[in-house]
Model the fold of this input.
Amino acid sequence: MEERTYTYARGHFNWEVTAQGVICLAIAIACVFEAARGVLVGLMVVIAVIGAYGAFKTFVARAYPHSVIFGDGFVEFECYGKRDRYDFEKTHDVRVREYPSQMRLYIRMDGDSFLRGRYWVHAQWFDGGQELFDRLVDLENTLNPTSLRARARRGGGFVDLSDGATPLKPKSKSKRKRQ
Done:
């Protein structure tokens, strides 16, 4: 398999990731100053924590990759010059939560932590977005085939009633006898 790089559209990345991270940081700083002045201290602290978390995810944890690279036996996520590479033979646990209507995915790679291994991929803004979406969903199916999501995607665990079998009827929770 040849190496394939999927890249976030520059304008969308600059606005949806970078600008929003800067806005979160500015809100956090402004709220800290307002709390120090005694203005609605409790509310300002809560908003500052939320803003700081948004900036942290963007600039420290780099949870929004600018590019995703699939190669022969690996996947790599890159954001702001930091690359996290996962070799398929060494990766044992991949969790992909997909949101197909928005072409978004939340991916937790093997050994994820607060600083590495958790990624939000907005596939609709990547070149080859549908292909990227499908490959990332298939990644969990391939590397973690026994997960509940992978089994549900394959149709495993569902009862096939096409052969005329009748489903079990749930027991009534009513204590009254029916007549």
